[in-house]
# Entry
Amino acid sequence: MGEMEQMKKEAETLKTQIEAARKAANDTDMASAASGVAPAPRVQLKTRKTLKGHLAKIYAMHWSTDNRLMVSASQDGKLLIWDSHSGNKVNAVPLKSSWVMTCAYAPSGNLVASGGLDNMCTVYNLKTPVIKTVKELDAHTGYLSCTRFLSDTEILTASGDTTCALWDLETGKQKTVFLNHVGDCMCLSLSPDMNSFVSGACDSLAKLWDIRDGQCKQTFQGHTSDINAISFFPSGNAIITGSDDCACKMYDLRADQEVICYQDAALNSGVTSLALSLSGRLIFAGYDDFNCNIWDSLKGEKVGVLSGHDNRVSCTGVPPDGMCVCTGSWDSFLKIWN
Amino acid sequence: MSNNSAGGLVSLQKSVKQLRFEAGIRRIKVSQAAADLKTFCLQNAHKDPLLMGVPSSDNPFRPPKSCALF
# Structure
């Protein structure tokens, strides 16, 4: 038992050391540093398109890199591929399991993926004459909460089994498993340089991982409940998280700590999803209270709201060219705003 | 939580190893981090359609207005 006691003591010492190092670096906060910055203009976006077609709650959506097509997933058991300019449905992919929680578009536009309570990530080829299932990635022992393609040959998954994984799409096997969370992994976001990713989990922590060696490089605490949404800031040096504790937070990677918190006493609904505008200045955060609030990322102030859904906003996404924001809801509709 | 002592020890060893790694990273001051984030936002602001507004003529999501000939 002596060794366990020693290890526990060392763990406590290290935690204290980390806190002290963070405190030493904490010479200001983001809002104070941005006090001289002109406020973001009052953002009033209008619904330009309402995409109707799903017959049940929408759980996820993801933009294609062409800034025009997008995929959405609903518990009506379908993935729909939309042309956002015309509002038309381009493809419908029937799912083996209707309990879908996530979907993703490959950067090439050739593939889409989905997964959920079936614990699997299924990859489909959109370019064959008839849409084909190309792989069923089956190794997680918990639900699939989020997935993102690195390319047509590699994909990342986050799971309720508390792990994330990098898969080889040619073999269908896991190349790397990312182990460190102690709660269900709920979301992930790839870094702009694709060398790392961040995950958010029900243990209220966000973690930064090296994609190649599987190492957890940094852990970010501060939230007091499940982290449901996470995104890299476009510079690659910070991340934004959204949680069931009703707040969003920005953590800077190089300072290794929270630099600003986005919350409002009047807001007592959990954050379900988030997306950033092109420059990172605006954060679009979807909440359980049916709204999507727009935050000034530098000043921490609410600068707008997207109201229009009749149920929880479950997913948000901004295309790579930043031309609009899409919200998806349990009301079965997707809305495009700009 | 009931772990047999061997399982508990291995888990603790992993935690300590991870904490040692995280304790060893280099950190910059928040003031420097914040300045860089601020600079990034301001330098890219003019390219950000949602911040700047999208003129209706260039908005792919808006139906084109009918042409009027004067």
Q: What stands out?
A: Residues 277 and 311 of chain A are 24 Å apart (CA to CA). Chain A has one domain: 46-337.
